[in-house]
Amino acid sequence: MNSVASQPGESANRLVGLFHELLDGLPPETATIGFKRTRNDDGTLVWLKPSGQQAAEFSAHIDDEHTSLIDVSFGSGSTFELPCEAKLPSDATFEMVLGVVRDLALAVVAGRCEERFGFLGVRGTIRVDETNVFRCTHFFYPRLFPKTIHYLPYSSGPRSSSC
Could you report the per-residue pLDDT of 39-60, keeping only the tens digit for each? Predict the structure, then answer.
């Protein structure tokens, strides 16, 4: 895959920068941001944690060696691997993948996501818009009583248009 960002550190910095842009677009004290190196020091994790307990945390992981691949997660751990689960072309650029991360993050911040916990797994859904819905299923998460969690928006107030 082609990548606009040439250095692994540059790609991670741009991902962290995106999360700062998202945070800056929210009312004060709506969320916090955090980031750290992975346990093996081979990538970067960044997350947006909402202040409200009924909103979903959103996070992303980028590996130093494969900067055109980004994993995003929300809620209890529903994870999408980009670019493949975004159905982007095989020659997708880092910019294209970063754009999908932004779209998914904005949908989670707006509360357009849910997780359905069944007997053997969890199915995560993010609705970017009417036609763009992302779904993933992870098995072997047993639960005695199935339930669905509809996450709330980070804020009920107006958002800044910076994102």
Answer: 988 899 999 999 999 999 999 9
CB 130, CB 112: distance < 8 Å: no
- Partnered with residue 63 across adjacent β-strands are 43
Is there a cis peptide before residue 142, judged by omega within 30 degrees of 0?
no
